[in-house]
Design goal:
single chain
Length: 442
């Protein structure tokens, strides 16, 4: 095990907390030892899972120069609760962070993300105003509101200021084309390349058609302002209560639509890492999404942008894939059409995980099914299962216990006999495992 690269996906329900150990990947002052990475630390399932994960992580990390444990690199892929909720300074009290990367869209002063940042601020205000109304929302809308929770601010304060100040480092806001060597990582025999996002966030992921709408929202009243008119006691005198309620309903529809757009931009600006070690290629994609195809000046999916801007690095077989967005149907490119037409997403999947020949790659997905079909999308996991080595027939393994999985009859029963890549939720159901380990041989 000591000479194998380790990817450990902690079971944090719906969220990512990934530990990567690269053997002999660090060289400082002539001394060579392992390189240790944490990619994200978040969950929408509560802090107890994250607390347990970081406590366990401490036990496997080496001792730093100040007597604490050492993390050589922390990568924060994007600003959603299921990826950042665990960045509480108290959890990292005994861990020294040597380098910290966040995506370029998280840089509040990045000029090429000005409109995306404005959209995010407007969506955050609207979702928090809606949360304060304590309305009965569908599960999908509840999840959307939760992405903009107030505790995100605390996590981002810790990442931007508290943790860097404590450890004497400066966060790097990374974009495509940067490498670990460029950013001063003390690497040995390993290359880490950022494939996404591109530096021009607004152009590639938001598009050029939302300026007027953003300006209108920013200057309007209602849910997009910090002090909205939402209570019946504040009804304007020149409008009936019924008309006001209709107006309020339209404002809420607009708020959810723009929150969804902002959420897509946030997902698509995820840090995407390619790690190359001993001729092996490992891809970590955050929640990067795909679309039907790339369009200049439009709101593009991250996979489509990478395919058009970084194809020389993406258009080759991978040996490991961190399945994106907890198995969501929109975060691993695939040909979900039934008419046999070749699509750009399907071409990308064939490039990184070929369907023909002997399966060489491994994959893992950090997930737990909640209320609906698309996270995880079982048909997608079954398709990936045809292309990777580490698969399980979870129906056979779990037997009658399979029926205790959430939404089993609705979404799992039809697919669990199809070989699927290792899932943190099903592995936990099998053995109570607190994490799933994937080892990559030299």
């Amino acid at each position: 095990m000591a000479n194998k690269l380790l990817v450990r996906a902690y079971n944090v329900e719906v969220g990512d907390c990934l530990y990567v150990r690269i053997p002999r990947g660090r060289k400082v002052d002539g001394k060579i030892d392992d390189f240790h990475i944490l990619i994200d630390c978040g969950s929408v399932g509560g802090m107890s899972h994250l607390e347990a994960a970081i406590a366990h992580l401490e036990t496997v990390l080496p001792v730093a120069s100040d007597g604490r444990k050492r993390l050589d690199l922390v990568v924060v892929t994007h600003e959603h609760k299921d990826h950042i909720a665990g960045f509480d300074p108290a959890l990292f009290e005994n861990i020294r962070i040597e380098s910290l990367w966040m995506n370029a869209a998280m840089n509040l002063e990045h000029p090429q993300a000005d409109r995306s940042l404005r959209l995010h601020r407007l969506a955050t205000t609207a979702m928090r105003n809606i949360a304060s109304l304590d309305l009965a929302l569908s599960p999908e809308l509840q999840d959307l509101v939760a992405l903009y929770a107030i505790d995100n601010d605390l996590a981002m304060e810790a990442l931007r200021k508290t943790l860097p100040k404590r450890d004497g480092i400066k966060p790097a806001y990374v974009h495509a084309g940067m490498t670990g060597q460029d950013l001063g990582l003390p690497l040995n025999g390993v290359k880490i390349t950022v494939l996404g996002p591109e530096q021009d966030i607004d152009h590639f992921y938001l598009g050029d058609e939302v300026d007027e709408t953003l300006n209108g929202l920013a200057s309007s009243g209602g849910l997009f302002r910090k002090n909205p008119i939402t209570a019946p006691a504040a009804l304007p005198r020149n409008i009936s209560q019924a008309d006001f309620r209709r107006l309020q309903s339209r404002m809420m529809s607009s708020a959810f639509a723009f929150a969804e757009l902002s959420s897509k931009v946030t997902n698509n600006t995820s840090v995407v890492l390619l790690i190359e070690w001993k001729k092996k290629r490992l891809l970590f994609v955050g929640d990067a999404e795909w679309d039907k195809g790339f369009k200049e000046g439009k709101a593009n999916g991250a996979w489509n942008v990478m395919w058009h801007k970084r194809r020389e690095l993406l258009d080759r077989r991978m040996h490991f894939l961190k399945i994106g967005h907890h198995g969501s149907e929109n975060s691993t490119p695939w040909n979900d059409r039934e008419d046999g037409e070749v699509t750009e997403p399907g071409t990308i999947l064939d490039a990184i995980l070929p369907a023909s020949g002997k399966a060489r790659a491994r994959a893992v997905v950090s997930t737990k099914r909640k209320n609906y079909e698309t996270i995880p999308r079982s048909a997608l996991l079954a398709e990936i299962g045809k292309r990777v080595r580490n698969v399980r027939n979870y129906q056979k393994r779990l037997g009658t216990n399979a029926s205790s999985l959430p939404k089993y009859d609705d979404f799992e029963k039809q697919w669990l006999e199809s070989p699927q890549p290792w899932r943190t939720d099903c592995e936990h159901a099998l053995s109570g495992a607190a994490f799933v380990d994937v080892e990559i041989e030299p």
